[in-house]
Automatic annotation (TrEMBL):
It comes from Actinopolymorpha cephalotaxi. InterPro entries: Aminoglycoside_PTrfase, Kinase-like_dom_sf. It comes from the Bacteria. Signal peptide: none annotated. This is Ser/Thr protein kinase RdoA involved in Cpx stress response, MazF antagonist. SUPFAM superfamilies: Protein kinase-like (PK-like). Residues 32-245 form the Aminoglycoside phosphotransferase domain. GO terms for molecular function: kinase activity. Keywords: Kinase, Transferase. Pfam families: APH.
Length: 300
């Protein structure tokens, strides 16, 4: 999708907010065109315009649709459960939904802006305080357990289906995006297809499958807020833990924070499968499979 013009964003947001929008800054363009808005009263908001147009999704969003039932583009209408959980736990701030609108023919969502410093890299900053708080934040959400999995608002899928669904979706993505890499297809057939579904059946909870350092903002030396709510689903905690492990710079501090709430599970059983899923989701580039599956391996 080409980028919406500043005038269009200003007009759409002004109508939705019923206020004059005095500044419009494009701050990110990955899954969303992400704008910071300021209005005449001095309030600041984020405006999110989903960039992809279903049915053509990226491998990651296609997986979330196939495996969890997440509807890319409208999932932000259903973030109430995660906002309530984050509020209850009281560790981090989260953006409040303010209005839904359209920018041209695209849906768009306005949230409050969180004060704090943003971060570009996936890695979390080299800080004990940040990692402990992150570990505790993730673990407190993992205390909310479910018997079935799905989206934040509808969990109708039996966990015994998780591996079958993930494999079906990966098989499709490999055929579409990785036909030039027979080693990726071979790893899938040899290992992914043989994965024990029970590894993922034990602990379903709210998870962010693309958790990384730039989904949060930072303030006064610690983690202050979670800003990217797009991908929250209810699913196996192992998936989120395997993803976050690749972004940690102080794993022992993360462990301390997590284990102040819950014991960490054994990573050996699920790491390679989840890492392979992450690799398949990249959909491009020339990754070294062994390196991808083993770098930043911290937990037993
Ligand atoms: N409500 C918000 N308050 C403060 N910063 C935000 C907010 N929303 C987004 N950001 C900033 O924009 C960046 C990209 O936002 P994000 O929600 O991760 O978009 P995307 O879905 O495109 O990944 C974040 O790293 C953060 O710095
Ligand atoms: Mg993001």
């Amino acid at each position: 999708m080409c980028e919406p013009t500043e005038d269009l964003v200003r007009a759409s947001a002004g109508n939705a907010l019923e206020e004059v929008v005095t500044s419009v800054d494009l701050v990110a363009r990955s899954s969303n065109f992400l704008y910071r808005l300021e209005t005449a009263s001095g309030a600041a908001y984020s405006l999110r315009v989903p960039r992809l147009r279903p049915p053509v999704l990226s491998p990651f969003w296609q997986h979330l649709q196939d495996v969890f039932g997440l509807r890319y583009g409208t999932q932000l209408l259903s973030v109430g459960p995660i906002l309530r959980a984050v509020d209850e736990d009281g560790l981090l701030q989260a953006p409040r939904p303010v209005a839904g609108t359209t920018v041209g023919d695209r849906p768009a969502y306005i949230f409050t802006w969180l004060e704090g410093t943003s971060r570009e890299p996936d890695e979390f900053p080299d800080s004990t305080e940040v990692h402990e708080r992150l570990g505790e934040y993730v673990a407190r959400l993992h205390l909310r357990t479910y018997d079935t999995y799905g989206t934040l608002t509808e969990q109708a899928i039996d966990p015994a289906e998780f591996v079958t669904r993930t494999n079906a979706s990966m098989r499709d993505t490999i055929a579409r995006f990785w036909s030039h890499r027979p080693d990726i297809g071979a790893w899938f057939e040899r290992h992914a297809a043989a994965t024990d579904p029970d590894v993922f059946a034990g602990h379903l909870a709210p998870i962010m499958p693309d958790i990384s350092g730039n989904q949060f903002v930072y303030h006064a030396g610690t983690l202050a807020g979670v800003v990217d709510l797009d991908s929250y689903v209810v699913g196996p905690r192992e998936l989120e833990l395997a993803v976050v492990e690749t972004c940690l710079t102080r794993p022992e501090d993360f462990r301390r924070g997590y284990e102040s709430v819950l014991p960490l599970p054994r990573f050996a059983e699920f790491r390679a499968y989840c890492r392979f899923w992450m690799l398949v989701c990249e959909g491009a580039g020339d990754p070294d499979v062994d390196e991808f599956l083993t770098h930043r391996t911290y937990f037993a």
